[in-house]
Amino acid sequence: MKHFLMNRKKMISQQPSTFAEMTANYWSISLDQVLKELNASVEGLQANDASARLSKYGLNTIRVKQQNSIGRIMLNQIKSPLVLILIFAAIISGIVGEWVDALIVLVVVAGSTILGFSQEYSASVAIDKLRKQVTIKSNILRDGKSTILPSENVVPGDVVLLSAGSLIPADGIVLEANDFFVNQAVLTGETFPVEKKPGIVSENASLAERTNCVFMGTNVRSGIARVFIVQTGKETIFGQVAERLVSTPPETEFEHGLHEFGTLLTQIMMVMVISILALNFFMNKPFFDSLLFALALAVGISPELLPAITSITLSHGAKKMNEHGVIVRRLNAIEDFGNMDVLCTDKTGTLTEGVVHLDNALDIFGNSSKDVLRYAMINAHFQTGLDNPLDEAIQQAAQDAGIDIQDEQKISEIPYDFVRKSLSIVAENKQRQRFLITKGAMDRILPACESVQFGSDTIPLDAATRDSIEKKFGDWSEEGFRVLGLAIKEVEKQTDSYTYKDEHAMTLIGFLLFLDPPKTDVEQTIEELKKRNVQIKIITGDNAKVAKHVANHLHIPVQNIITGSDLNKQNDQVLWHLAESATIFAEMDPNQKERIIHALRKTGHVVGYMGDGINDAPALRSADIGISVDTAVDVAKDAADFVLLRKDLSILQKGIDEGRKTYANTLKYILTTISANFGNMISMAGISVYLPFLPLLASQILLNNFLSDFPGLTIASDNVDYEMIEKPNHWNTRFIRNYMILFGLTSSIFDFLTFGVLLFFFHAQPDEFRTGWFIESLLTELVIALVVRTRRPFFHSRPGNLLLASSLFFIGLTLVIPYIPFLKIFRFVPLPIPLLMALIGLTMVYVLATESVKKLFFTKIAKQ
Ligand SMILES: Nc1ncnc2c1ncn2[C@@H]1O[C@H](COP(=O)(O)OP(=O)(O)OP(=O)(O)O)[C@@H](O)[C@H]1O
Ligand SMILES: [Mg+2]
C-alpha cells in the first residue's frame, strides 16, 4: 500500500493535468475546489449529466479481465499442445502422403474443438446471466431525488447516501455524517470500525488517517452519511490494489482432484506415445502413419472434454439451483455446497418466523407499563442505524397504544453495535430535561445500572433485587421471549456529544419482551438435512435460553450450549474440541461467530454459514460456503457464495442436493472415461506392437473419440440415484485409482478377446479388423456409461432422458457405420453378419462382467 501511495505522490508532484491527477489528493483540498474540479454540486447530478459521465468514465467496476470472453474459451480449447502437434503432423503427412487422410484428421479435430467450445461458451453465458441477478445497489441522489441504482452506475460527481450495512460503492469525501462508522479492514487491516466525518486532512495522510474519505470495498457498520464521489472503478484505491486483493480464489478440493487426475492421464499418455513410436519405428511400420496413430491415441486418452464437462455440469447445477431459488455467486462453490457436512445458521428468520412482535413492555414488577413503552419508543423512533425488526416492533406497539412523543427532541445517538449490544438515544423533553435512554441485551444493561425504578421511587440495585430480576429474565427467556432491558439516566447539558462511556450509573426502568415464534415448517427440513448427514448448529447473538427454546420447539437435539463469555475463556485448541460437540452458540458477537467457523473448519468439517446481518459478514466470509438471502444487507450478500431468494431452509436443502448431483455427474464422466475409453486405448497400444498393421487409423481413432463425446456431454443432466446425495462427497484419489485399475483391466480382457475373435476366428484382414475393432470399442464405451453411472444394477436406475436417447442413438449409429457409403472415406468395410453378431454378443457379456465387477468393487473394495 505504502509503495502505491508513494507512486501516487510522485504523480502529483509532476504537472497535474488529467482528471485523475487533479483529484488525486482530494482529501486535502477544500470541498468547494473538489466540486469545481468535478463540475458538480452537493445536490447530486442530473440524470442526463450522469449518463454522459458514465460513458466518459466507464462503469464503476474493477473487474479487470472479461472472464468469459470468446477468445479465452477458444484459446482454452486449442491451447492443448497435443491438438496443435496433431494438426501439424497431419499437415506434414498430407504433404508427403495422402491428402484425404490428413484432411479427415483435421476435420474431426475441428469438429471436436467446435463441440467443446460451443458447449463451454453457452454454459458460461448462462452462468453470467444467473450471476447478474444479485446486483449490489446504491442509494444515489439523481435529479434531486434519492434513487436506488446498481452500484456500477455510480460516477464521479454523484452524491451517495450510506447507512449501516451499505457497501461503499466508490471513493469519495464525506459531506455529512451522523455517528458514521466504517469498517475498512480490507484496505487497512484495521478490524475496528473507524469514525468518518467531514473535514480536511493533510496531503500526506495515510489511508487510515483520511477520516474525511470513504473507500470502495469498505462497508458501513453504523450511522448514516452523505458522500460525494470523486473516483470510481479502477481509479479507486480498491481498484488499484484489486489485482492483489481478489487474486484467484484457492482451488477447491474438487478442482484439485480434477487437476491431479488430468496430470496422471497426461503422464500415462506421454509414456505411451513415446514407446509406441519407438516400437513401431523398430518394426519398420510407415513413420507418418505411426506418428499419427500415436498422437491420435494420445488425444483419445487425454480427457480433452473435461473442462467443458465441468463447465456444463456446473452451469446445469447453477440453473437448477436457480429454479429452486438459490442464486450462485461463486460457481465452483457448488460442489463445496454438496460437500457441506455442518450447517451453521442464525436464528431470526431462518428458524423463527422473523416477524418480531413486541409482546409487552413491563416495569420492574413485571406489570405492563405505558411509561416504559414511551421511553422505548423514544429510543426506537430516533435511532438512525439499520432498520431492524426490534425497533420496528417497538414503534408499531407504541403507535397501537397511541403513544405520542412529539414533545421530545433528539439530541444525540450512540448507535447500536454488535459487541456492546445496546443502543442509546439522548433526548430532551418539554421541561428541558435531558435523558440518556439505553436499551439492549440484559447482560449489558444490568451491569450498567446502579439503581432501579421502584414505582415512583428510585432505589439502589442490591443483590436481592438483582437476583429477582435475573430470575424473571431467565423465566421469560425459557418461555421463548427475547428480552431487552431499558435503562435511563438524566444527563448534563454542557455538551451535545455523548459516547458509550456515558452508559453507566443508570437506572433500570423495565423490560421489553419480544416474541418471534419458531417456524412451523422447518422441522421437516431439519429432518431431511439429518438424513443427508448435515449437522445443524445455531449461532446467534441472542440469549442462550431463547435459542434453546427454539431448538427444543423444532426438536433439534441440543448437546451442548456455548455462550460468548464461555468462548472468550477458551484458547483455540480447546475451542476446536468444544465446537465439535456444541449445538448452540449464543450471545455471540461477529468476531466470535467467525472464530467458531474457523474452529469447525480446523477440525475437518466443510462448513456452511447462513446469515443476513452486518454481524454475519465475517463468518460468511470465512465459511467454506457462505449463504445469505436477497433481503440481507449488502455486506452480507457481498460476502456470500450463494444468495437465497427467500430465507428458507428447505431451499437450502435443495441446493445441497443439486450440489451433490453436480458432483456425482462430473464424477460419472470421469468414471466412464477411465473404465472403457482409457482401457481401449491401452489395449490398442498393446496390440499395435503385435500386429503387422495399425489396429486403427488415426482418423478412425479420432472419429471414435468424437462420437463417444456426444453422449458424454449429456451427463450433466443425468438423473442421480438417491444414495449418491445422501452423504457429503469428498474427492478420493484412491477410489479413482482402484476404479481405473479394476475396470480398465476388465475392459482390456474383453478387448483382447475381441482381437482374438477377429484374428483367429474370422481371420480378419486389416480393414475388416479395424472396422470390427472400431465398432466394438465404440459400443463398449457407449454402454459402459450406462453401467457405471449408477452403483445399483444398471436396470435399477433410470438414466436421464437425454443421456438415454443419445446413447441409444449412437449405439444404433455405430452398428450401421460400416454400411454408410459416405463414411467409406474412413476406410470402413461392411462386416459379415456373423461377425457383427459376435461383436454384439461380446459387448453383452462385457456388460454383465462389468456389473459383477461393480458389485464386487462397491461391496468389497470401496465401502464408502
Ligand atoms: N436495535 C437494538 N436495540 C437494542 N438492543 C439490540 C438491538 N438489536 C439487537 N439488540 C441486542 O443485541 C442482541 C444480539 O442481537 P444481534 O442482532 O446481534 O443478534 P443476531 O446474531 O443477529 O441474532 P439472530 O441469530 O437471531 O439473527 C439481541 O439479543 C439484543 O439483546
Ligand atoms: Mg441476525
Helical content (DSSP H or I, runs of 4+): 40-55%
CATH class of the largest domain: Mainly Alpha
Side by side, the strands of the main sheet go 8-23-22-21-9-18-20-19
**Radius of gyration over alpha carbons?**
34 Å
State mean pLDDT (0 to 100 scale): 87
Can you summarize this structure?
With 864 residues, this protein is an alpha/beta fold.
What is the fold's blueprint, element by element?
Layout: H1 2-13, H2 19-22, H3 31-38, H4 47-57, H5 70-78, H6 81-96, H7 99-131, E1 137-142, E2 145-150, E3 159-163, E4 171-183, H8 185-188, E5 194-195, E6 213-214, E7 219-231, H9 237-245, H10 253-282, H11 287-301, H12 306-324, E8 326-328, H13 333-339, E9 342-345, E10 357-362, H14 370-382, H15 389-400, E11 409-414, E12 422-428, E13 434-441, H16 442-448, E14 449-454, E15 457-460, H17 463-478, E16 481-490, E17 506-515, H18 522-531, E18 535-539, H19 544-553, E19 561-563, H20 564-569, H21 572-581, E20 584-586, H22 590-602, E21 607-610, H23 617-622, E22 625-629, H24 634-639, E23 642-644, H25 649-690, H26 698-713, H27 722-725, H28 733-761, H29 766-788, H30 801-816, H31 833-861
Parallel strand pairs: 9-18, 9-21, 14-17, 18-20, 19-20, 21-22, 22-23
Antiparallel strand pairs: 1-2, 1-3, 3-7, 4-5, 4-6, 4-7, 8-23, 10-17, 11-12, 12-13, 13-16, 14-15, 16-17
Helix pairs in contact: 5-7, 6-7, 6-11, 7-12, 7-26, 10-11, 10-25, 11-25, 11-26, 12-25, 13-25, 14-15, 21-22, 25-28, 25-29, 26-29, 26-30, 28-29, 28-31, 29-30, 29-31
Bound molecules: adenosine-5'-triphosphate and magnesium ion.
